[in-house]
Design brief:
Blueprint: E1 16-20, H1 23-30, E2 39-44, E3 51-53, E4 60-62, H2 63-72, E5 76-81, H3 87-93, E6 101-105, E7 113-116, E8 120-124, E9 145-149, H4 152-166
Parallel strand pairs: 2-5, 5-6
Antiparallel strand pairs: 1-9, 2-7, 3-4, 7-8, 8-9
């Protein structure tokens, strides 16, 4: 995969851009996650230790290392996911997490969104995995569709839904407590 593609242009506020298949890696990871300055809110059903190739170098870091690096630079990160992270991601998570990298789990979550600095957003079908975000080669990645936007009303609406789940506002009326005995638990890192 060519990792040296230039960053894409901004799109006019209120408009959306279609993101398809392998474009996810460049739009969501390169133009998005790696560029976060203040905050990063991620909702994903599946979370794996996806490898992120470093532009111009012949090496890669795991997404956990990327998130840890962003957090150490002061980016506030909230990662909301549905299942148990992959074993590789769990191994990496067992080392000390920066205080501004918070991970919670809601087994009913199926939404996928990446919100950067509260002013740019991906909303679509891709999970935070190599196959989902297109970090795998052609023929090995998923077929994914989504949108990229800088539309304040759309971003605000998704952030409201994210915050509702993050804060546990749905937990009282949840009919799936049998699969979520400890609502919004943090990962057991010890």
């Amino acid at each position: 995969m060519d990792t040296a593609l230039p960053m894409r242009r901004s799109i006019p506020a209120g408009q959306v851009e279609l993101v398809v298949d392998g474009q996810h890696f460049y739009r969501i990871v390169r133009d998005g996650i790696l560029q976060a300055k203040v905050s990063l809110d991620i909702a994903t059903a599946d979370f794996k230790a996806m490898l992120v190739p470093e532009a111009g170098l012949n090496r890669a870091r795991s997404i956990v290392q990327v998130l840890r690096g962003l957090a150490s630079r002061g980016v506030e990160i909230r990662l909301l996911h549905a299942g148990t992270p992959s074993s590789a991601a769990l191994r990496e998570l067992k080392s000390v997490l920066p205080s501004n990298l918070t991970i919670r789990r809601c087994p009913r979550l199926h939404s996928k969104a990446v919100i950067l600095d509260c002013n740019r957003m991906y909303l679509g079908s891709a999970n935070l995995t190599g196959a989902g975000l297109g970090a795998k080669a052609d023929g090995r990645r998923n077929f994914e569709w989504g949108i990229w936007t800088e539309s304040p009303p759309l971003i605000d609406g998704v952030l409201e839904q994210f915050n509702s789940l993050w804060e546990g506002r749905q937990c009282q009326s949840c009919k799936r407590k049998d699969i979520c005995p400890v609502p919004l638990e943090e990962p057991k890192l010890s």
